[in-house]
Amino acid sequence: MVTVENGIYPAIPLDAGQVQGWKDIPLREDDSLDPLIPLGPLSQEAEILMTSSLYFGEHSNSPYAENRNKLEGSLLTLFARQSVIHRLLVAEQLLPAGHHLLVFDAYRSYQVQKSLHDFYKQKLREKYPGMDNETLESETQKYVSLPSMDPTRPSPHNTGGSVDVAIVKLDQAHEEELLQIRSHLTDVHLIIAKRVGMEMRLSATMRRHAKMLDFGTAFDHGGEKSALAYYESKIAAGEILTDNDMLACNNRRLLFGIMTQAGFQPYFAEWWHFNAPESQMGAATAGLDYATVGAVGLDESNIAHENTRLKIRQEALKLQREGDLAVARTAGLAIVRTALRVEILAAIRETGDPKLVEDWPAEIIAPPEE
């Protein structure tokens, strides 16, 4: 056992998240019972969850923020099934004081899934030119599931039933600041302009001051060190871990502990990936007979939410570029838009670049260099 502040977390079982034949789990779908809903900013149900849309390149820590790495079809908003979001909120509450979930990815379109899969497979082919296609595909699918348009065999993220998460920690002063902002956001009568301004301040507190726990690799590291039980295997083999490795091991135990307590199923090859038992992979890991969430697309309300987020982001980036000129240009605009611009400007002046992240290491998903 390992004690992490106020919680006691067991060692991760060596076979945790091992799964085979999950694509053969039958589906009994009813999307109306478990809809796709947004996380993070402007979400009615999960506004308190911190999101950083890695594949969109939302923040500066994302390698996909560079134009040459842009992924067509990626979304600014993270969406997930309602059951997934409810479990994430439970997991958030299980964390020790000052610790928070950071969600990097959830629902993923077929287009993004295909881009990630093909990129990893090509890089693997370049690294091992003699590897046969069957082995290439098998190794690739440890880290990026095969994109599928077969409604009976969707990739996990395409169902909205999988999430990629890490844990970040704030010092006491900035934790108090965060809690104060959250308390303001609970006001159901808060106008949209004020809400956007408060959310920008909340994001800035996390982006500038929340440090990601050391898990031994960056997020999306595409090698064996990312395996959930990597450090547990070393311990089982009688190896004495360094202090840094033991820290990473303990942090993985913490994440594994709170996510499984919240009802998620782990995945053996990635410490950050967790599945809902309603998904095929999650059902197979949990030993269930069938899954209830299959491939899904965005509905009209999801699309409207994404468009609103994009418009606010574009406005914020434009105002940041304009600087003091933005104040003069605000005059004469419609009252609603003026109020929004004033709140965004005030937030930018207080907190700076809305894309800047001080920490949160992440990599392009690819085979590791030797």
UniProtKB/TrEMBL annotation:
It comes from the Bacteria. CDD domains: D-Ala-D-Ala_dipeptidase_like. Pfam families: Peptidase_M15 (PF01427). Keywords: Cell wall biogenesis/degradation, Dipeptidase, Hydrolase, Metal-binding, Metalloprotease, Protease, Zinc. One of its GO terms (biological process) is proteolysis. GO terms for molecular function: D-Ala-D-Ala dipeptidase activity; metal ion binding; metallopeptidase activity. It catalyses: D-alanyl-D-alanine + H2O = 2 D-alanine. This is D-alanyl-D-alanine dipeptidase. It comes from Ktedonobacter racemifer DSM 44963.
